[in-house]
Design goal:
alpha+beta; Alpha-Beta Plaits; 11 helices; Rev_trsase/Diguanyl_cyclase
Length: about 350
């Protein structure tokens, strides 16, 4: 029995774990771009940090003899538990709905918190904390209803367990069967933070993947599958900037129709993707104007070979202008001038 984990050790481990979990969840939230989840992770992270503060009341006994310090710390621990549950509810509604729906609860928790925080002595503190405890009981029941109403399945067990722990504690106090070892509320809170930490950790990967998908989609031209010009905001300028314009594309469109013209553009991009290296980029600027970013050793030979292959495969040529890619505006200006000169020379033939 002596080798078993003592209750004090269990709470100390839970305290440390909740501190780490709270910080990690807040940091996770900073990596999420969508505000709905970003704010939810912040609320949840602070909620778990407040639980860790509340757990100090279980781990350490306030026996300094200083009544003022004792009362102050008891207020801090109690209010931490109240606001932890409140932020937990805020996090759930923010996570599911994208906003905090139950704002009306502010009119209850803040006045109660004010009364407790300003209690002049222990007698008033006990009196006001009893009112606060009734509010927390309501808050727990209300949050449990919200969890099931919004079908947050991964929180079913942990929060139901907390509700049962609260019921057991109230039963023990009402019928005078309460002992120190029957007090399960602390265990209920630990279960809640563990359940929440597991849920957020599992969901984090999916949220990041979803963010990455929509981010990449926002950088992709919907017609051809090439990158669009927004990609330049994310690039570190390097290599060669090759501006390409398909020859006589307008005539092709007029002769065969826009549907065939769109098919040609898609075929062109697909063909280029199959010929350039993995680190090279094909970007659609607009219409039949494209840019290839490449670090090819001999870029002119590389582009000339592409030009011949495109003509053989698709039956259409292209003109191009090349410049060093150190700044989009400057590179485009230089490349566009060279492109214009090539088109002008072709028209003379």
């Amino acid at each position: 029995m002596n080798n078993l984990l003592k209750k004090e050790d269990f709470y100390l481990i839970a305290l440390g774990s909740s501190l780490i979990s709270g910080v990690v969840i807040i940091l996770f939230g900073k990596n999420i771009s969508k505000k709905q989840y970003k704010r939810a992770y912040l609320y949840f992270g602070i909620s778990i940090l407040l639980i860790s503060i509340y757990l100090f009341d279980y781990q350490f006994r306030l026996t300094s003899g200083n009544v003022v310090m004792f009362l102050t710390l008891k207020k801090i621990f109690l209010l931490s538990s109240y606001f932890s549950l409140f932020l937990y509810l805020m996090g759930i509604e923010q996570y599911v709905l994208g906003f905090f729906k139950s704002k009306w609860l502010n009119f209850a928790i803040f006045p109660i918190a004010f009364l407790i925080a300003t209690s002049p002595n222990f007698s008033y503190y006990v009196r006001f904390s009893q009112i606060g405890n009734l509010f927390v009981l309501f808050l727990i029941i209300y949050t449990l209803i919200v969890i099931f109403a919004y079908k947050v399945e991964r929180l079913y067990f942990s929060f139901t367990f907390l509700a049962l722990c609260v019921a057991e504690t109230i039963f023990g106090l009402l019928f005078d069967t309460f002992t120190e070892y029957d007090f399960l509320l602390g265990y209920g809170l630990i279960t809640v933070f563990l359940g929440l930490s597991i849920k957020l950790t599992l969901d984090y990967k999916n949220i990041i993947l979803e963010n990455q998908y929509f981010y990449e989609k926002s950088l992709t031209d919907p017609l051809t599958g090439a990158y669009n010009r927004e990609i330049f905001n994310s690039l570190n300028p390097a290599g060669y900037f090759v501006l390409i314009d398909l020859d006589k594309f307008k005539e092709y469109n007029d002769k065969f129709g826009h549907k065939k013209g769109d098919e040609l553009l898609k075929g062109f991009v697909s063909f280029i993707k199959g010929r350039i290296r993995q680190e090279d980029l094909i970007i659609r600027i607009g219409g039949d104007e494209f840019v290839i970013i490449t670090n090819a050793h001999e870029p002119e030979k590389f582009i000339e070979r592409l030009r011949r292959d495109v003509y053989k495969e698709l039956g259409i040529g292209f003109s191009y202008g090349m410049s060093i890619f150190n700044n989009f505006s400057k590179a485009y200006k230089v490349a566009d001038k060279k492109l214009y000169n090539m088109k002008k020379n072709k028209s003379k033939l």
